[in-house]
């Protein structure tokens, strides 16, 4: 059993598990942090961005004015943003049989894997994962295609040149493999390969293994996966949460008794308590609005935003923000808000019950009804006429490199009354803000990450008791900035097996058993004999048939009766004589009793010698040796066949025959 | 004693004898006993007052059939009767005493098993042990043995009561110093000296501690000598459960002794032994107890301080103690313990004893207090979730204390106390930074935030120079405060608002440029920052926050009221908002605060009459406040009315020639005085004070009515004597509530019929009340005279439940309950019992 690790990002994993002749890809997360090296794509012409000076090396030897721009001491690539894909060279992607998706954030690289690679397999995901994942992909494509950029910078990627660039460009890895965003057509094609599954539904893969998604409590439709055969069980835990937010709670008990547990997607903010952050979010928001400023919340169009809106719904009244408009701007805003209301079976119990009442499960419906929350596909169109300040705007993309958020950053960045509040934990907010410097706007970092923290995960692991844990190497040491926090890492016995990008791990367990079926008629013919109470054995002669990873014992086909032939019989055609098999023996020869029996038969001079495996009896008068060992008995007796037969019979008396 | 009570008491006794179980409720017997106790204490003798009791006691003593509660009651009653020497004699004469206090008697009856009876026996005994007669009875009847046995009774209450009774015996012995009772005393001591098994020894140690605090020198010395060996033995076996009681005993013994006496030396040695025990927790406890008890032994307290500071030293790595000291072994033990979860309680013990440590003389401190402050600050940083600072100390402990609000609160508490330490002003900036960090941290618990605010107030209050607070620090602090004012948790908002109020009251300080500055200005940039925040908080959904913001506004504006600064538009807005609160707020807290705001304003204002807005608001506030649903709002309103009253009629003082005297006979009314009074009274009426008082006096809430009544009496005392003789002095006032009007009318009717009102003024009254066109108008003086305020006052001063709690009502209840259950009786009672099960 092997694990190929194609992504080094702990929360955007992409691993391939080879298990019993199946090749299963676990998630295909897209590392979008690479876009932080690019200049933002403004929706409206930005004089500031267009006037940024080009970059020339200090000694003037290197001139990449066209490709690289300098802003506040940092260098950015002026080109369509590119993503860092999962590793594609480590194994042949066309050999992948299935892809299991755990949540909509972890499927963004799907088109890169399924298209143009020869992939012919199936993708399994829950319905909300597919639908919301589609929305996020659509949004991404829309963000990129809306602001086409003719130029594609490639010179800077030249190894020799990249070496000379200032950081962090200099340290970016595998820049040659970075790719531009996929197209809508590729998205559609990739998503057409998705097969929907429900929680605890068992999907048989080639008869070899069974996979089944479990609720993971992190987002709508998010799942952990169990991959098991009859005798082995691998659990894949990715993006799980024990908090009671909107999704169905996490199913923990089904993870018990795993041989291997692959653990990814823990919280990226182990020190930030989501509740505290939510409170912080609200107080900063209220503080800004009261002072007459605007609030910008760069966020994804699904996920935490539902919780933010729910929290604000309660907070608005208490903080006297009733008249402040809230805008949600995203090409998929409408679908996202509506989808969330219809996935009843994927919601937490509390919200599920609301589905049967006249009120919708999420209170954002009421915010929309009362005109407190308005949503628009983009800043163009209706929004521009209805826009009123001070206000709160939720919009993407959280990287601040593309999407409507770029416009608001340019618009509001100059006033210290305004605040940008970061709630998504995926991007470093300082890096995200770098191309907007100098910035007068206040910045608040309230990352809300509801995924498991180290405390919760160690409790979980104590409970489900996996034999081995595999996790990204980042989880095996405290964070770099807080090296004294030994509580911010996984401490397990045996220690977890760490992986990094491009690791190939041999998972530490041997397959020892295989299930074999036996046909009824064959089973009927068996003659069991009891070897000890409750345990019976029988010999079986059969033909083993293996097909589709299923093994079946079938009766030995009887030789067809030979048609009377006129030809002369030939010895060769004689059917082989089927000899009755000799009985099988079991049991052990007890030394004392055996010696007594020998004595009865007149063999008195016996020298017993103890060996590592048993005993050697030397019958001195007969010059014969009897070796009694755990798994065999030998009688060494030269030219005395009667004696040998007698001794054999004596030994056999003590053994059971089948 | 009430004769009525005396007359029905025999019947009650009869009822108790027959049907003890049909009492109105469980507490009747307790109440009865309480009443007897009061009678015994106030009257001449209980038996004199209630002679039937002896009969009752002796009947019960021979009647096993009485319920255990009645038996227990009787035992206690016997004790009560026997507490006086006369009563004791009577009881002895009718030979009840021996029988009642003979445990054998109850054991034979099979009743001793009931803890209820045992406790009655003990308490009866304890009550009786007041005089030498009783003590000799105690010794002769050999009651010490059973009493000692009861010390280890399975019932905790019995054991504890036995303990107290034993102490009582010893104390009585001591006070009588009668030689004859040495027998019992010595036996008791012997028993004590055999402190043996754990459960028993805990009780005995408690008894000892109790005794040692109360006994005088000769007996104490004997006692100490007797138990010293056992104590030493206990200390050496060092059982954790006994640490606290042992310490109590040793410290109790130690507190009263002179330094040079022998037992003292041994006790000090014992304390040293306890400070060197094996378990770090025990040692910490011992050290804390030593420090708390203010031991005179300097070495001992110095060592205790070192022990207590050890965890802080280890955790933070700040070397508070020099390394080559004797506590090396303890350091290792504590370091081990700090790696476990239990480290939290240990660190908290350490922190909560820092106040004691700071009280020590500086030459005995193991390190300068400044270092302790540094260590506490470092600890606070380690506890803060967002902080990335690490310590050179114990690393393992970090995982337990990070984000632990218990440790955070203890450390902040310590920091609060440490503000008084000498030479720590230099670290103000550090303190300020840490506190800002806490206020800023999203994971800070509201209680931690509140503590942090308190610490800020404290430190700012003691620091003479705040110039070290840079603009950057101030900006950070302002941001944090502003954010907390918008917090989602109301507790956090409330603390913030309170803080804003308290900060105003921190006295001004002097900067290095010799300029007087207010801490509020230095930290938050002054009132123009806080007032808008507080005004926002007036709209808060949580009533506590609204109330706090109103109080804070009063605190904030008080200085400007005192200076008589002209009102700003902002203040006018606030007044409008507060009136709205009074009218509309659904919660009492906010309305109470609003009334108090006006009270504060009025009392702070140097000349209220010149402040038009204040005086203009008075009628509204008073009329609204006194009609409130919440009695506290009403009471606060009346307090405001009192202020106005006092202002209208200042207290007579020598400088005032026209001081009003209550006794009119000695002074002749002067025309000027009358007109002054008249105008003041008119003012009062205009402000709405009189209507408020008249409204309050008929209020159904007793404290409100009482207060109003007192104020009306005061007003009557001032006004009526002078005005009675005046010719045209009618001042009318509008009555708000219908009820007061009705009452006045009713009184008026009665007055007509019975001619209570004196001839002289009746005419005026009639006219006064009726003459006005408005039927809701009444003449003030007339009403004051008409309302029988003195009678009202005497009724109101009695507590509202005085009727229900009277002994007569108790006795009647018992009789009624018995009557209800007896005649058609048996069946219904059984039914009741059946129902219950």
Automatic annotation (TrEMBL), chain A:
Cross-referenced Gene3D superfamilies: 3.40.50.10890, Ribonuclease Z/Hydroxyacylglutathione hydrolase-like
A single GO cellular-component term on record: cytosol
Keywords, comma-separated and alphabetical: Cytoplasm, Nucleus
Domain Beta-Casp: from-to ranges: 305-433
Domain of life according to the entry: Eukaryota
Family according to the record: Belongs to the metallo-beta-lactamase superfamily. RNA-metabolizing metallo-beta-lactamase-like family. INTS9 subfamily.
Entry protein name: Integrator complex subunit 9
UniProtKB/TrEMBL annotation, chain B:
Domain of life: Eukaryota
Keywords of this entry: Cytoplasm
Main location: cytoplasm
One Gene Ontology cellular component annotation held by this UniProt entry: cytoplasm
Gene Ontology BP, a term: DNA damage response
InterPro entries: ARM-like, ARM-type_fold, BRAT1
Localization in the cell: Cytoplasm
Family: Belongs to the BRAT1 family.
Protein name as annotated: BRCA1 associated ATM activator 1
Protein's organism: Poecilia reticulata (Guppy)
Record lineage: Eukaryota, Metazoa, Chordata, Craniata, Vertebrata
